[in-house]
């Protein structure tokens, strides 16, 4: 999964348009994009979108944060639509995942869904306190599929007046980004890069996505359909990377008992083999 496109939970029109694109996943949003008095209506619309399944996309639902008191009502409303996963905003750590997992177990059983089938992705850096919970995700639940870092709400939590300048995040946000990446790697789940908000700056989007892939992120969240193709292309391996990966895998296949090998004048070892398999999408 490379691209996760947010769609307002109260807009079937935008959902239909997003479904025509090539995003790997659509995140139907019940949180920030829906005002409070429209949330009950949005739950019903979201359920209808889930049941329509117009394309091959994975379908996630971003529920409201646990501290709003609306999370369980969101889950109860949408689970009959069998979403592939739930996005939990403002997550504070592994305990939040366990709470949502407990609710999902009961709701899956009630909806005739295989228990454990619904994944959880956490937006894990939206408050100052959440940064200190990043180490608690490892082993918290087999449902956990990814950690996404976010900057928009974090700036409000910090009381910051500016997140970035010249297209470069300031240090508090780079810290949150890097710690989220490391927490995801430690938990062995997908690290997901934050949304790019300068909608018409496609060159900037491409540069930010390529930097994310370079550093180890495997997907990016998006807020506009025209970002999808750029992000998908940026996460695709280059011809040179594919050629290198194929050579590494072939070298180890020919020498199954070797821990290190010489390839094109350089030493390679098992971490190189793991990297090569990741490039080619192999387990």
UniProtKB/TrEMBL annotation:
It comes from the Bacteria. InterPro entries: Aldolase/citrate-lyase_domain (IPR005000), Citrate_lyase_beta/mcl1/mcl2 (IPR011206), Pyrv/PenolPyrv_kinase-like_dom (IPR015813), Pyrv_kinase-like_dom_sf (IPR040442). SUPFAM superfamilies: Phosphoenolpyruvate/pyruvate domain. Mg(2+) binds at residues 126, 153. Pfam families: HpcH_HpaI. Substrate binds at residues 62, 126. One of its GO terms (molecular function) is lyase activity. The keyword Protein biosynthesis does not apply. Its cofactor is Mg(2+). Keywords: Lyase, Magnesium, Metal-binding. GO terms for biological process: oxaloacetate metabolic process. PANTHER family: HPCH_HPAI ALDOLASE_CITRATE LYASE DOMAIN-CONTAINING PROTEIN, LYASE BETA SUBUNIT, PUTATIVE (AFU_ORTHOLOGUE AFUA_4G13030)-RELATED. Belongs to the HpcH/HpaI aldolase family. This is Citrate lyase subunit beta/citryl-CoA lyase. It comes from Bradyrhizobium stylosanthis. The lineage of its organism: Bacteria, Pseudomonadati, Pseudomonadota, Alphaproteobacteria, Hyphomicrobiales.
């Amino acid at each position: 999964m490379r691209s996760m496109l947010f769609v307002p939970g109260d807009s079937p029109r935008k959902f239909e348009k997003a479904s025509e694109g090539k995003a790997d996943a659509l995140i139907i949003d019940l949180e920030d994009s829906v005002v409070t008095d429209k949330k009950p209506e949005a739950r019903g619309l979201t359920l209808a979108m889930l049941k329509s399944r117009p394309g091959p996309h994975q379908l996630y639902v971003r529920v409201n944060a646990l501290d709003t008191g609306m999370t369980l009502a969101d889950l109860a409303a949408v689970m009959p639509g069998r979403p592939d996963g739930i996005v939990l905003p403002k997550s504070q750590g592994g305990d939040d995942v366990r709470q949502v997992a407990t609710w999902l177990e009961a709701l899956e059983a009630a909806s005739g869904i295989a228990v454990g089938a619904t994944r959880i992705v956490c937006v894990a850096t939206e408050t100052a306190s959440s940064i200190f919970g990043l180490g608690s995700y490892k082993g918290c639940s087999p449902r956990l599929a990814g950690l996404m870092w976010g900057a928009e709400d974090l700036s409000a939590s910090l009381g910051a007046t500016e997140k970035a300048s010249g297209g470069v995040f300031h240090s508090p946000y780079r810290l949150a980004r890097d710690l989220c990446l490391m927490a995801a790697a430690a938990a062995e789940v997908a690290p997901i890069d934050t949304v790019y908000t300068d909608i018409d700056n496609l060159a900037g989007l491409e540069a930010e996505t390529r930097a994310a892939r370079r550093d180890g992120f495997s997907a990016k969240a998006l807020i506009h359909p025209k970002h999808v193709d750029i992000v998908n292309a940026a996460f695709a391996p280059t011809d040179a990377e594919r050629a290198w990966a194929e050579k590494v895998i072939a070298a180890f296949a020919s020498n199954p008992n070797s821990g290190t090998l010489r390839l094109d004048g350089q030493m390679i070892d098992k971490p190189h083999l793991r990297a090569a398999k990741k490039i080619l999408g192999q387990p």
